[in-house]
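Sequence, structure tokens reproduced for absentees:
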Amino acid sequence: MATADDTAQRVADAEEHQKIYKGIMRASAHVGVPFGLGLAMFFTQLVLANGIGVALASFVVVFALVWWVAKTFFMH
């Protein structure tokens, strides 16, 4: 049978899990998604034989744009 101490501990655990979850989601939105899309554009440019310079420039532009969109519209 659950006691008051167990209930308090479960509430504290739930709050800690929610804090960790929000941190992981924030990190993935700030770094993971822009990096993944930038990397996809980088390799797309390489496959299209546009050269390493264009590929790097595409990576930087896409990373910056996606980071700005995520920061502006999806972070509360």
User: Anything to note?
Assistant: The first helix runs from residue 4 to 47. Residues 15-73 form one domain. The CA atoms of residues 4 and 10 lie 10 Å apart. The chain has one domain: 15-73.
